[in-house]
Design goal:
This protein is an all-alpha fold. It contains six helices and two strands.
Length: about 160
């Protein structure tokens, strides 16, 4: 390792000296007092420039747009209004057990045990699943959000 480093230093130093002394003489101009003879004055030459016409090809590219479906974010629900809907005409209490609503239905899942999140409760009320029907035609978006807010806030307590 030390030999390699030493060899590298020697090589760099040698190259440095060679570069410093190389070619410097050609670039030095003669002093006016040391030049004898006639001086030639350089003449100006002009060059005629021709330009070529460039032709560019138009390139067509296809763009593919992919549409992805996103689940809309449900509106914020009101748990107090959701309790009224849960116990009312939607008849959630007939199928589900939920202690806060004093409901002991056995057809659907026991909500105190499953403790659904707001998003899951909203999805189930909106889209249904298994034996549970969709309530998107009978409850407004806000009412579905209210039920989901109620269930997710009291389930398991």
């Amino acid at each position: 390792m030390r030999r390699t480093a030493l060899a590298l230093v020697v090589l760099v130093t040698a190259l440095g000296f060679a570069a410093a002394g190389c070619g410097g003489e050609e670039n030095q101009a003669a002093a006016p007092e040391t030049v004898e003879g006639e001086a030639t004055v350089p003449t100006e030459t002009t060059a005629t420039e021709t330009t070529a016409t460039e032709t560019t090809a138009t390139q067509t590219t296809e763009t593919t747009t992919t549409t992805t479906e996103t689940t809309p974010v449900p509106p914020e629900g009101d748990p107090a209004a959701g309790k009224e809907i849960f116990l009312g005409a939607s008849a959630c209490a007939n199928c589900h057990t939920l202690a806060d609503a004093e409901a002991s239905g056995t057809v659907g899942p026991n909500l105190d045990e499953t403790k659904p999140s707001y998003e899951l409760a909203y999805d189930r009320v909106t889209n249904g699943r298994g034996n549970m029907p969709s309530f998107s035609a009978t409850l407004s978006e806000q009412q579905r959000a209210d039920v989901a807010a109620y269930v997710s806030s009291v389930a398991g307590k």
